[in-house]
Amino acid sequence: MLLQNTVNPSSSQLSLRTLATLVLVGSATVCLLALLPSSALSGALVFASTIGICFFIGLIGCFSRMRLHEDLTFLLGIYCWWFLIISEQLFVRKGISESSLEGSFSSAAYGEVFVWIILFIVISTLLARRGLTVSVLQGQTKWLLMFAVVAIASCAYSPAPLFALAWAFKLLVAVMILLACAGEIDKNGNHLVFLKSVYWAYVVLVFVPLASTLTHPTSIFGWRGFTGDQPPEFRLNTNIHPVDLSQHAGLLVILGITLHALDRRRGRMLVTMLAAAVMLLAVGKAAILSCVACTLLFFLLQKRIKAGAGWLLLVAAAATLVFFLTPIGSYFQDYGEHERVDTLTGRTELWDLAAPAIKASPILGHGFMSSKFISESVDLDWDAGQMHNAFLEVLYNNGCLGLLLVLAMNVCIIRNLWRVHRSSVDSQLRTLASGCFALYSFLLLNGFVEPTFGGRPSCVFLVFQGLLVLSEGLRKSIVCESPEVRAAVIRYSPVEA
Predict the structure, then answer these.
(1) Most buried by CB count within 10 Å: which residue of 8, 16, 306, 410?
(2) Which 8-state DSSP code applies to residue 368?
(3) Residue 335: partners with Cβ closer than 8 Å, 6 or more residues away
(4) Spatial CB neighbours of 146, under 8 Å, sequence gap ≥ 6
């Protein structure tokens, strides 16, 4: 049999247009950089331009596929969602609360805002193309939209209105992306695509920071804080805080285990084990304990007791090796001798000092992102930068109004996932629900010591928002499994209706 290669003319023309557009964008960027004076041409600007070019390459690729296949609109939303999550790592900055209050920001901060603006333009175009209506208020995404509106409105009385408005703008962009994805996520296969986008985003968030250790190979385990003048802590020293890195790695472990249960790819388990090693080396104590508990919860929901026991033994063996073969043991020794263990490293003192401020404005709070400047508001001898508790974070920033909206989101996620786990006859949906339940439990447990939701729209808070949309999509999917609904669809055909 002879195989004939057929070329689609429209596809060929589209490829030429895409190539021409890429050449045009790249040439325009190079010309713009060449016209700038040498004093304005910094490494940060060149890096931001490179990131912008890479983003547009992916964006043009998405638009190309959309023109060939109208049903791939979901792909653009997923790409924007992935890029929004990783943008936090692309523009790492080490600002302290005092400089933020004075309005002093690094060039990386402006670069990240520029990315948010591009994403806003892209997703606004997509929503206008789809025709966004008031139907978005009928689903559970309305809680996200209402929280974004409250956050934006509260920027008016925040200690740093422009600073708060910038982060509220990112929150709005995230909600808009999820609104674009919500209408398509309950279709066949899109649940898995959405979860994989979060997985690959966290692959970037966990492993890219490790490259920064190449700049200081002799002090890989010598974290000295963002200012660099603190006593060294014997845990992994990258360009982000060890607690954040450990949180990201813990989320990647749960994501990897969930996806491995679905596709059985060996590469997933390799990434999971490497992420577990990073989590242990970064020594985020709450993240480690939460990750172990939530992975065991996943295996329990899957009724895989032996696999859970094997995983627990593997983590215990790895933790033992890390403790004795790395300087991590010295960190725990210093932590027990010098740190305030009984106050959770000063957290309970912070909560006691912040309680009167919360009571002073219990309904509306002090404004979105005002907890960034909590150390300037109360008599605290260290730069907290946050409330180190998700629920207190919302109470301080947006009061009881914001807390009610966040609690509503929590309730929706729990109800959706539990219904899917108990009612679905599809093993893949039940596995996805179990994995999402483990992810949510991880965020909830860490929320007692870190603002994993309700505060700054960090990559961790974005996972929480994504879980709300994903859990609702999973819940809608089990309706199609009902025999009664299938019979109703057959009985009442469109012609008869």
Answers:
(1) 410
(2) T
(3) 341
(4) 405
pLDDT digits (tens, 9 = 90+) for 121-159: 888 887 877 665 545 667 888 999 999 999 999 999 999
Most confident of 71-75, 120-124, 133-137, 252-256: 252-256
The one-letter amino acid code at 460 reads V
- Judged on CB neighbours under 10 Å (0-12, 13-18, 19+), 197 is buried
Alpha helices for 283-426 (secondary structure H) = 285-301, 305-325, 328-338, 347-360, 374-377, 390-423
Nearest residue to 105 (alpha-carbon basis) of 149, 167, 41, 170: 167
Q: Angle 285-301/305-325 helices, nearest 10 degrees? A: 160
Distances (CA, A) of 145 to 82, 132, 171, 179, 392: 20, 13, 9, 9, 21
Q: Using one digit for the tens of pLDDT, what is the confidence trace for 281-328?
A: 999 999 999 999 999 999 999 999 999 999 999 999 999 999 898 888
For residue 353, which of 319, 324, 376, 370 has the smallest C-alpha distance? 376
- In the chain, domain spans: 43-93+103-132, 137-480
Cβ neighbour number for residue 372 with a 10 Å cutoff: 27
Q: How far apart are CA 8 and CA 1, in angstroms?
A: 22
Residue 254, judged by CB atoms within 10 A of its CB (0-12, 13-18, 19+), counts as buried
Two tokens at 81? 């969602």
| pLDDT the model gives residue 205 | 95
